[in-house]
User: Fold this.
Amino acid sequence: MSIMIKTENNILNAAMRMFSRYGVKRTSMADLAQEAGISRQTLYNAYKNKDEVLRALIRAFASAALADSTKALRNVHDLGGQLDIVLHNLTVTGFDLVAQMPNAQDLIDGFNASGKAEMDAAAETFRLLIADLLKPHHAALARNGLDADALADFVQHAAKAMGRTARDRAHLLQQLHSLRQLCLAATAA
Assistant:
């Protein structure tokens, strides 16, 4: 791993700790540099501002979730198990992370303001993954008046909304289970 990649990973890990602890608004670039154990100039060489750090953090989180999904999907061939993996990495992992943060709302607000394009790109990546899982079931979906792309779009948006509105983790899991079951019913022969 190159020195620059190590430095960027170090910065993103520091940003996650600081944003989690103090929120995005109350964390300065100087705070990030100090937490990462680097000079402010090194930080500014990697990222122009806090918004860039936040966008990079979103990209890194989404990439890790997608990589975890892709790796786990290699060993699972039934649609229910595949949906469990993707919905977990799409929704539950982020929900659990945010639930542990004392300033979670500030972090979410920061994501919404600075990282909307990154969040949208991550959502699109997961939508495409879900569509790929559903495409082998195109005949059953067609009989039920659906297609893989439309259902994938619905599943991705619904799962994202569930992650924001669930009362607690148990409620989220219950909602995701219902979404999974609806997909299975829609793809039943």
About this structure: The chain has a mean pLDDT of 91. The chain has ten helices and no strands. Residues 11 and 36 are 5 Å apart (CA to CA).
